[in-house]
Amino acid sequence: FDTVEELREDVTKQARQAKLFAQGVQARDKILELLLDTVPFDVPQGMVEHEVHHHL
């Protein structure tokens, strides 16, 4: 960055993007939780293992 202002703008932009991403993840998790609470079904073990590995 050539100036402190450019650095400040970039950090602000990254913070906004991170917040939007986190909000999207939170919304997805709420939808999945609602589905799991209302729709009975068996989840294949391979899918469970994949998701656990993906989130670690």
How does this structure look, described?
There is one protein chain. With 56 residues, the protein is an all-alpha fold. The chain has one domain. The chain is 82% helix and 0% strand. It has two helices and no strands. The two termini are 34 Å apart. The mean pLDDT is 94.
The mean pLDDT is 94
Gross geometry: elongated
Order of SSEs: HH
Uncertain segments are none
Cα Rg: 18 Å
* Helix count, DSSP H or I runs of 4 or more residues: 2
How many individual β-strands? Answer: 0
Helix content: over 70%
Quote the distance from N terminus to C terminus.
Answer: 34 Å
**Proportion in β-strands:** under 5%
Question: Which structural category fits the helices and strands?
Answer: mainly alpha
Report the major sheet: none
Counting structural domains, the number is 1
